[in-house]
Amino acid sequence: MATLADPNFRARLSALGDKYAAGIPATLQAISAALSHCRNADSDAESLEKLHALLHGVAGSAATFGFAAYGAEARRIEQELLPLLGKRPAEVDGWEALAGQVERYLSWAARDPKAAVYAG
User: DSSP string spanning 20-83?
Assistant: First the structure.
């Protein structure tokens, strides 16, 4: 069996995972704030872009640290947001239904972001 070039690799990866997990509440708060901003009557196209960017960040990093379902659901939602970029939320048909999906995701992730299956 090959030896790792860096014997502390697993410990460092574990520490990064712990740091990632500790940051999840702040990430969820940022997503919640972006969602709230999208729901304001005066929200602009940048509001959806911010929400998309936050979900995209989760989608791209979560599985690396053992949060596969957390990342996969973020990916699913951010893919639904992608064709809406450049529009104001008020201009989007079905916006409230999509916003409800984000709310359910936030509620689920606050309970158990490391769950193996999304149950929102």
Answer: HHHHHHHHHHHHHHHHHHHHSTT--HHHHHHHHHHHHHHHHHGGGGT-HHHHHHHHHHHHHHGG
Tens-digit pLDDT profile for residues 20-53: 999 999 999 999 999 999 999 899 999 999 999 9
Tell me the pTM. 0.91
Predicted confidence (pLDDT) at residue 3 exceeds the cutoff of 70: no
Q: How many residues does the chain have?
A: 120
What is the C-alpha to C-alpha distance for residues 24 and 113, in angstroms, rounded to an integer?
8
Q: Which token pair is 107?
A: 């509620």
* Domain range list for the chain: 31-111
Phi and psi angles of residue 79, each rounded to the nearest 5 degrees, phi first: -70, -35
